[in-house]
Amino acid sequence: MLTKFAVKNFRGFEDWIEWDLTKSQKFQFNDFAVKDGVIKNAIIYGPNGAGKSNFSMAMFDIVRHLTRLFVPSKCFENYACGLHPNDPVEFKYSFKFGDDTVDYSYKKDQLGTLLEERLDYNGDKALSVDDDGPYLRMDYFHLTKFPNFNISSAANRPSFISYLLASIPMAEDHFLIKMQKFVSKMLWFRSLDDRQFIGLTSNPEDIEKIIIDNGLYLEFAEFLKVASGQDFDIIAPQEGDSHLYYKVGPSKLPLYKTASTGTRALFVLFYWLKRASGPSLIFIDEFDAFYHYKLSLAVCKTLFKLDAQVFLSSHNTYLMTNDLLRPDCNFILNHGKLKALSESTDKELRQGHNIEKLYRGGAFEI
């Protein structure tokens, strides 16, 4: 599981901003949202322009950094903060795998070229690359001599981790393999004016075609009915069909083209729920931008049943309720800081409190 993430000098974040997922409190309700002392489900709120999207994209820089999965280039344009365009962009990640901890940090320049990296295993330095050259604790990798990794002669500044993963055999339970598997199963997406995603697959896919080719049209119709109350009489696709159609009286209408913006967003959600087989972490940015508030609540309950860590960003404070999560799993991002509701007030918060009303009344400060 991801336990901490911090970034500095990325886009609008001039200084360090950290998300510590180990600061769960001892609330005696909705314990599904916390696993082994780590927050599993959370929603981030904040005003327009606070940086919710940029923070979530920054979290997924590691996918761009260590995998060859799909990453849209425009998600990482204007990389460095405009106040310090020549300073490095810095990232820190902490993971927990059973009883083991892995801490990984790196720096990049404004073009995204790697400058430095370091990985600690259970608090001990395992590898690093900086101006002094590469370092490797060889017993962690069962090596008797240093690998042929000459960073000083490399124009592209490759990652030492990527080199080791590609060139040294490692057991499935090796901490580096565990981190690689986690990162390769991270997924970020959103459905606004256009659909964007990071990770989990190498290429964009046609959602309607995936539903048709896998015979999922009836399951999709049931999903729409349960999620939004819409009862579409979807026509069984014929061989060669690339679009879904439904009946309205004597008419046959294209489902996606005639659907509302919110229903189109449900297309995307259904696709990823089916596509995201065994994800490690899912972040949906502005997940309910086109949802009715009751639909948002229903979707949250569906997502929070997944085994993965699931994080959402939203403006919909209807979801800020102890009926869904807990005060330590609702976060506010503003002024370059990210804090849980439980950390943002001196009040003792209880299950019976209306935390949305408290929020609207200014009870939480960052």
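That was protein one. Protein two is written in the same sequence-then-structure order:
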Amino acid sequence: MSKPSFVPYLKAIFAVVVWAAAFIATKLALQEAAPSTVVWLRFGLGVLVLGVTVFARKQFAWPRGREWGYFALLGFIGITFHQWLQSNGLVTAQATSTAWIISTTPIFIALLGWLFLRERLGWLSYAGIFLAVLGVLLVISKGDWQAVFTGKFATSGDILILLSAPNWAVFSILSRQGLQKQPAARLIFWVMLLGWLLSSPIFFLDRGFTDILSLTWKGWSCIGILGVLGAGLAYTAWFDALQELPAAQVGGFLYLEPLVTMLTAAVVLGEQINLTSVLGGGIILLGVWLVNRPRKEKPPTPQTPASG
């Protein structure tokens, strides 16, 4: 029996909602544990879920030769370093501003493609880049343009989150080749496993085991959301959707992520929804759309949210 036509759309929506909630779950988990502990537990669970998925689909295979180095590099950039930036950034950055900033990742992917892959950018793309920068400044400065000009417009967490966007763009560019050669679940499994192993020394040198023993049910619930749902099932659902739907259609759902984060953060964390944040976020999304809009000469690249 064939699957109902709406199932791939439900999978994409599920992934986006989970990734949006991950910012809130991370902030709550950070109230009880160090960033290194949250990252280690999250991706330890994610590796288990993805491992089960790969074996269940009979896609398991050991890396060969240079693939070990390739997967380790992706693991360090996309898991170890990226999650260090985001988890430490969310200590002081708001979940809402984090989601808006992360949504600029396609801008950096386009810039890297222009710099290193000789991918062309039209004048609308340049306009989009300008708008995205303007929107980010508006969001993190909360509309205080005087603070922007004096350099006192962001928390240290905002800066780390902002750095994570181009870092994920590098990861996305480097992972293109691997995604063309083998199943996405297998690649993500090895990348996540090696990235998790590379993050282990930080966990052991920090207060990792002490944090684990002191976690409450709320802390474990947040870790479970981040690991089982965010790092495991959401990735599986997202790439399943990509295999069944055009990349442009699936990528369009990513525009919902910061909106879902903003609404959820207001309810769960009490973060205020103000006109400045909504306006800045809208400008960012417009800029991203202008840069990442479908063009006849070049099909859109499948995007993955940098939260996940």
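The chain has one domain: 7-292. Keep this in mind for the problem set.
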